[in-house]
Known about the structure:
Blueprint: E1 17-25, H1 30-48, E2 53-62, H2 72-82, E3 88-91, H3 94-97, H4 101-113, E4 117-120, E5 125-126, H5 133-164, E6 177-179, E7 185-187, H6 189-203, H7 208-217, H8 231-238, E8 247-250, E9 257-261, H9 271-284, E10 287-289, E11 295-297
Parallel strand pairs: 1-2, 1-3, 3-4
Antiparallel strand pairs: 4-5, 6-7, 8-9, 10-11
Helix pairs in contact: 4-5, 6-9
Amino acid sequence: MDPKVWYIPAKRTDPGMNVGIYCRVSTGEKNQLNSLAAQIATLTRAVANVEQWKLTDTFIDIASAKGESPRREFERMIREAQAHHISVILTKSINRFGRDTVDTLEALRKLKAAGVRVIFDEDGLDTDVVDDELLISIAESFAQAENETRSMNIRIGLRNRALNGSSGNYRKRLYGYVKDNDGNLVISPTQAQVVRDIFRWYIDGASILGIIKKLAEHKIPSPTGKEHWSKRSVDTLLSNEKYIGTVRLVDSVTREQMFEMKDSHPPIITEDVFRAAKETRAKRSNIVVSEAGERQRKSTKYSSKNSK
Length: 308
C-alpha cells in the first residue's frame, strides 16, 4: 500500500505591496455619500483581486474640487507615500484625484519621486505603464472639461426650474410667512405686522440698534425664537426683496443673477416702502464711492448711526 503523501505549500515570504485607496466626493449630500460608498467598495474589491496587494490605508475627502476647499486626507496620503508607508495608490479617476491639471501633475511628481505607483481605475491609466505626463495632462483636461459640462448642466437645470416656477427657493421659509398645505408661502398676520413695523421704524429714522430695542420693549422674539434680535437679522430683513413678492435666483458658481420672478408670493410691504428703506440705507451709509470708483469712508464720523 502506497504511503500517503501530504503536500505542504511553501509559506509566502513576500510581504506584498502596501496599497492605499483615495476616494473623494464634493458634498455630504445623500447621493454623494452613496457615490462615496460605491467608490470605496469598487476599489477595495480591486485591491483584493491582486494577490500581491495589501490594503493598508483608505483616504477619504468630502471636499469640492474648488481650490479653497481643504483636502486633508489627500495631503495625508502624500505624506504617507513620502514616508514609504504605501507603495501603490488606487483611485477611481483623475477628476476624483486632482482639482485641475496643475494640481494633478504636482501630486504625481511628488508620488513619483517617492517611488509610488498611481492607478486611475476608471480611466485605465497606470503611472508604472504610462510614464508620460503629457498623456496624464490630456486625460486631466478631459476630466476638467467634464466637470465644467456638469456644472453647466446644473446651471441649466436651475434656470429651467426658475422658468417653470418649480425651484424650491421660491418657497423657502421666511419670517413673516408660513407654508400652506401645498408648501406655498402665505402671510402670517402677526409676523407680517412686525415686518411692516421694522420697515416703518427704519424709514422714520430708527437705527438698527434702535429697532432691536423697540422689538425687545414689545417682547417680540427673533425669527429663531430668541429673546433678542441680532443686528444681522434686522439688517437682512430690511434688504430682502422677498417682502415685496420678488425672488432672485443666483448662480452659486459665478454668483451672477440668473433669474428674477415677481409676484412669486403675496407681498407684505409695497415696492415704495422697500425703495424708501433702500434709499435710507444709502444715505446713512458711511461708505461712499469716489469718481474713480474707489470705496471710501465719509469724513463725518458715525454717519451711519442714529440715536433713535
